[in-house]
Amino acid sequence: MNYLASEKRYETMTYQRCGRSGLQLPAISLGLWHNFGSEDVFSNAREILLYAFDRGVTHFDLANNYGPVPGSAEETLGRVLKQDWAAYRDELIISTKAGYTMWEGPYGDWGSKKYLVASLNQSLKRMGLDYVDIFYHHRPDPETPMEETMMALDQIVRQGKALYVGLSNYSAADTQKAESILRELGTPCLIHQPRYNLFDRWVEQGLTDVLDKRGIGCIAFSPLAQGLLSNRYLKNIPSDSRMAKAHFLKSSALTEAKRTALVGLNTIAQQRGQSLAQMAISWLLNNPTVTSVLVGASSAQQLGNSINALDNLSFSAEELKRIDNCCDPVVRG
Length: 333
Ligand SMILES: NC(=O)c1ccc[n+]([C@@H]2O[C@H](COP(=O)([O-])OP(=O)(O)OC[C@H]3O[C@@H](n4cnc5c(N)ncnc54)[C@H](OP(=O)(O)O)[C@@H]3O)[C@@H](O)[C@H]2O)c1
Known about the structure:
binds NADP nicotinamide-adenine-dinucleotide phosphate, 14% strand, alpha/beta, TIM Barrel, eight-stranded parallel β-barrel, globular
């Protein structure tokens, strides 16, 4: 069936400026790490993507290795871009990354110029694109000189293969160093993509200060701790859940401390008239450093629930304190 985007797609989404750049991102973006690979059902993946765009989600985040099989999430997006979104390319912000293992041998991993340039060329082919909007270095490489990695990012922008560049999983100190190198080269660092959620607040120990000072945007990944921060795991492990299916979220992550925290957080969310997932998203957006919350979803219905977090973004001081009290044993480990 031919797809026509909803005429109302820009009516309810909020867009926030990404650091000190010209680019605005939707408060909620969609990631294709899980549920968009060749082993997933294409019709469901397509439904989620089209639903997202109809709700004003203009930013879709990928990486070379997303699947399974690695690379296939980019192919899925490429199919949708071709069959449904050909008329909408200029309304979309597509990002991809390289930094984790992608192919065999010394040139398919980490942070060399050889790897980054070759990987982005492959990603562009899989998605059928001339350029991506944002290209990230996916993780710091302790062995490649940072200058080389940043020069590769700079060159990629100058070649027109990416409009902006970003860093992911870089520490506060490494971000500072990388940003200085990029600035000197003339390619600003647009954005940082760290894991950030109620249970994992490492970014607050220095990274957010660096981002604020340097004018770098922040897109928080795994905002629901891969689905833990939802009502899915309050009682047991549902058979269709990520914890039951995929090896990235192990049942050992569901500790007694976490389950107790989830029950407490769920009560607060209910009192706010939100689902737990919605409250976890609103809590992140309450932090002015956060430009966008990068959610995953296994169905369009789930994504709809997450987007509706935008209906209630304010927290009383008492609610914030109660939330911190619930999370404290988990955050402190
Ligand atoms: N840069 C990096 O190193 C890095 C690492 C990880 C992720 N990321 C990016 O961040 C994106 C999001 O990560 P993530 O998938 O871990 O995010 P997440 O939002 O924390 O988890 C998504 C999972 O939560 C569950 N869920 C989603 N919405 C829900 C709702 N409203 N109610 C109940 N459950 C809900 C679903 O689990 P079920 O499948 O069980 O239904 C869904 O698959 C990725 O796609 C990727 O783009 C980046």
